[in-house]
Design brief:
By secondary structure, this protein is mainly alpha-helical. The protein has five helices and no strands. The chain is elongated. About 25% of the residues are buried.
Length: about 130
Amino acid sequence: MKKKIQLLALALFIFITATIAQNKPAAWAEMKAFHSLMSTSFHPSEEGNLTPLKQQADSMFIAAKQWQASPIPDTYKPKETKKALKQLVKECKGIKNAVAANAADDELKKKIAAAHDVFHTIVKECKKEEEAH
C-alpha cells in the first residue's frame, strides 16, 4: 500500500512538472545572447566606461543579426518584432561603424542608448498580451 502511494505521488509530481513546462514560454536563445552583450556594454557606458562597448561592438552587431534571423516565438507580435529587430540591427551596425571610426564617447553613448531603447521595445512592446484562461 505504501509503495502504491509513493508511485501515485511520483506520477502526480511528473504530471504537474510536465504541465508547468508546457505552459512556460520557451526561452528565445538569440535574445538571451544579445541581452548578455547589451547589458555588459550598456550599463558600464552609463557610468562613462565605454571599454566594454568598444570591445563588444562587433559581437553585438553579429548577435543582433543572428537574433533577427531566428524564428520569432508565438508569444511575440511578428510584424512589430520584425520591424524592431531590423531597427536594432541598424543601431548595432551604427555602433560598430562608430567604434571603428573612433567616434567621440558622447556619440557612442547616444548610439548604445538608442540600441538599448530598441531592445526594450522588443522585450516589452512586441510581446503579445497573455490571454486570460
